[in-house]
Structure formats: structure tokens, C-alpha cells
Design brief:
CATH superfamily of the largest domain: NADH-ubiquinone/plastoquinone oxidoreductase chain 6, subunit NuoJ
CATH class of the largest domain: Mainly Alpha
Helix content: over 70%
Mean pLDDT: 80
CATH architecture of the largest domain: Up-down Bundle
Number of strands: 0
Oligomer: single chain
CATH topology of the largest domain: Four Helix Bundle (Hemerythrin (Met), subunit A)
Number of helices: 7
Distance between the termini: 83 Å
């Protein structure tokens, strides 16, 4: 019964976090909610008896891919305007909902680990078996996923570079106008 309640709680957190990730205008906020969603899915995997899939979810998705997204956001630094936005991110009200969701997931994980018996499996699944499966019959899916991630990275860089160039042009125009006004004063 407890596992069912925890499953529904983790599912609700995953759904709400995903919806919030999709509706946020700020990329950093969206990433925070996406990480929470991925952690909730990892809890779900653990609850249904797939601890290896849960570990992969945390390590690969919530870890590696989110770090990649953070690097993209850092690479697209939008200058002073971006700095002003970053200062707004440090306000406590921005972090309240993600922290609450993360605490609920932590409580769920502690309850599950303390009250459940170790998961029984049909046999040990080695990393070699996972690799052979991923790069055997599922190699096309793995390659398509990697190409989609690469396309997203290149697209984000291209779009962000355009904003950087527009900002530089506007600054150059302001500086030129300021320089002309200074020459008129002399």
C-alpha cells in the first residue's frame, strides 16, 4: 500500500514538474523543474523494481545531460541583461517549489529504502549486457537520440549567438553616439 502511495506521489511530482518545465520562460527555471521530473521518474523506476534503470536515470539524464544543458546556458550568456536575470534567480521565492518537490522525493526514497526488502531480480545484469543491448538492436535509437541532442545544442548556440550579436551592435551604436556627443562638447 505504501509503495502505491509513493508511486502516485512521485508520478504527480513528475507530471507537475514537467508541466512547469515546459511553461517557464527562463531556461534555468525550466532546467530545475526538468531535473526534478527526472529524479521523480528515477524514484518510479526504483518503485517498480528497476533499480538499475533508476540509477541510469539519475546518472545519465539528471546528471550528464543536465550538465550539458547548463553549459549551453552558460555559453549563451547574454551579458548585462543576463546578469540582471541571474540576480533575480537568487530570490528565495524562485526556489520554494523545486525545494518542496525535492524534499518530498527525498522522503519517499528514505521511506522506500527503509521499509522495503532488496529488489529481487531474475539475474544480474552487467554493464556489458546493457552495452550490447543498447548498441545492438537499439543502436539506431541511441544514434538518433545523440543526433537530436547535438542538433539542439547547435540550434541553441546559433539562436543565442544572434542575440549576442544584436546586443553588441546596440552597444556599439550607443558608444558611437556617446563618442559623438563628447566630441561636440569639446
Amino acid at each position: 500500500m505504501l509503495e502505491l502511495v509513493l508511486f502516485y506521489m512521485a508520478s504527480t511530482i513528475a507530471l507537475v514538474s514537467t508541466i512547469l518545465a515546459l511553461t517557464r520562460a527562463n531556461a534555468t527555471h525550466a532546467l530545475i523543474y526538468l531535473i526534478l521530473s527526472l529524479l521523480a521518474v528515477a524514484v518510479i523506476f526504483y518503485l517498480i523494481g528497476a533499480p538499475f534503470a533508476a540509477a541510469l536515470e539519475v546518472v545519465i539524464y539528471a546528471g550528464a545531460i543536465m550538465v550539458l544543458f547548463i553549459f549551453v546556458i552558460m555559453m549563451l550568456n547574454l551579458g548585462e541583461k543576463g546578469d540582471r536575470r541571474e540576480k533575480q534567480l537568487l530570490k528565495p521565492q524562485v526556489w520554494i517549489v523545486p525545494v518542496i518537490f525535492a524534499l518530498v522525493l527525498l522522503v519517499e526514497l528514505v521511506l522506500v529504502l527503509s521499509q522495503s526488502e532488496p529488489a529481487t531480480t531474475q539475474g544480474l545484469v552487467t554493464a556489458k549486457q546493457v552495452g550490447l543491448t543498447l548498441f545492438g538492436p537499439y543502436v539506431i535509437a541511441v544514434e538518433i537520440a545523440s543526433m537530436l541532442l547535438l542538433a539542439g545544442l547547435v540550434g541553441a548556440y546559433h539562436l543565442g549567438r544572434r542575440y549576442l550579436e544584436e546586443g553588441r551592435e546596440a552597444k556599439a551604436t550607443r558608444d558611437k553616439g556617446h563618442q559623438i556627443s563628447q566630441e561636440g562638447v569639446r
